[in-house]
Amino acid sequence: MSTKTVAIIPARGGSKRVPEKNIKRVAGKPLIAHAIDHAEQATSVDRAIVSTDDEEIADIATQHGGEVPFIRPPELATDTAATADVITHAVEWATEQSEPVDIICLLQTTSPLRKPNDIDNAVACLGASEAESVVSISEYANPPHWAVHESEEGYLREFFETSSLWGEKPDRSQDLPDLFYPNGAIFAATTEAWHKHKSFYTSETVGYKMPPERSFDIDEPWELELIRSIME
Prior knowledge:
The protein is an alpha/beta fold. It has 2 domains: 5-137 and 181-231, Spore Coat Polysaccharide Biosynthesis Protein SpsA, Chain A, CATH 3.90.550.10; 144-175, no CATH class. The protein has 6 helices and 10 strands. It has a 6-stranded mixed β-sheet, sandwiched between helices. It has a two-stranded antiparallel ribbon with strand order 2-3. A hairpin with a 2-residue loop joins β2 and β3. The longest helix has 14 residues, at 83-96. The radius of gyration is 20 Å and the shape is globular. The chain starts with a strand and ends with a helix. The model has no long low-confidence stretch (mean pLDDT 92).
């Protein structure tokens, strides 16, 4: 029996730091259109659903081939609304349509450098393991071990107090363990795990490694301009 994978593309209308973020044009089309294209071109995705509370976003998504089967309820469109509740709402909607969903895949519009095969590889990574979920990750450009903070007196202090920077033998980057961060591009989980945890992070989560050059996540205006310069 084949596995049914549904991708969910959340796109709320009230972005604060980057107003109208989801429909900002990058490389000739709105950000949300890139996410729709990624989902359509990924062979592992059987259906992609755009979840939005905004009629303009819904219209633009539809114009670019996206499926917007519902308008998100107002209580899921506030600044404090949890992404988990948005995903659960979409999954419950699909289930009510008598459509079995085996894997849920969250694709954020803010990762336009993600590629369709990244989605396929992440879903394959989940399927090949006994994990409950998979999260796309990237390696830190600079070791977190070198983090510093300012003391109350304004002096720099090592945050982790490991003498990585100022000890008798400071750690070299090549001697430090590889550490990764979630890059925001892809999250996926089995539906069973989602109903159990309401999170993509569980004690049985595996990572799908993506290179830094595809791992930008737009959260600030300058990041939007940087992505434009890269893609255009």
